Model the fold of this input.
Amino acid sequence: MAECITPESFQGKSADEIAALPIWEGNKLKTLSDIFKIELTAEETSSIVINGDAAEVRRVGTGMKAGEITVNGAIGMYVGHKMAGGKITVNGNAGQWAGSNMKKGLIEIHGNAGDYLASPYRGVSEGMKGGKIIVDGNVGSDSGCYVRGGVIKIKGNAGPFLGFHMSDGVIQVEKNAGSRLGANMIGGKLVISGQVEAMMPTFTIDSSKPKVKIDETEIAQGPFYVFLGDLAENGTGKIFASKAGNPQLKSYEKFL
Done:
C-alpha cells in the first residue's frame, strides 16, 4: 500500500524525507526507499514520475487534490482512489478499481484497465462523482458501477455489467460492450459506438439520434438507437447503441 505517493505528501520534503515515508508490503511496515530508488530532480515536488513495473504497488494517488503523477509502466490496484484533482497518466496497464470514488481530476490510462474501473468497494453505493477517465484499451467487468457524475471514455471494449446502477454521468465505449449493460441504472448515459452484446428486456426503445454529446468538447457521431431504463428501477437512464454496429436491433425500429 503506497497511499503516501501523492504530490501533497511529497510537497516541501527533501529526498531523504520522501524516502522515509511509510508504506505497507503485506503486513510489514516499510519505507518508500525499500521499494523505490528516490531521486529529487528539482525543488518542485508537485510532479511525480514512477519508472518501471509497479503492478504490485497499490493506492498510488489516493486522495490527491493537485499536481501530476506519471507512471511509465503498469500500476496496481486503486490508482487514483478518491482523487479530488490533478492528473494521473499511466503509460501501461492499470489494476482493478482505478479511479474508485473519484471526485475531480483526470486519469489517462494508455493501456488496459482491470475490473471495477471507477467503481466503489463491494457493499458501497457511491461511485465516481466527477472528473474524467480515459482508457486507450479495454476495461474489465463491473466498470462504472454506481457512477454519479463525471465522464469515462473507453476506446476499446468493455466487459459485462458496465454502468451497473449508475445515476448520472457519461460512459462512452468506442468498441463493444458486454452483457447486462446498464443493469439497474437510474440515470446517466451509456454511449456504445460498437456492438452491444444484448439489450436487457427492462429497457425500451425511445428514439434515434444522429449524435450524442459526451462532454463540453466532444460529440459522438451516430446514428444511435436510444433506449430508456432500467424500467425495473423506474430508471430514466439512456443507452445510445450504434445503428451501424447493431443490425440485430433493427427490429426495434417498428416501435419508433
Summary: The two ends are 52 Å apart (CA to CA). The chain has a mean pLDDT of 95. The helical segments are 7-10, 15-19.
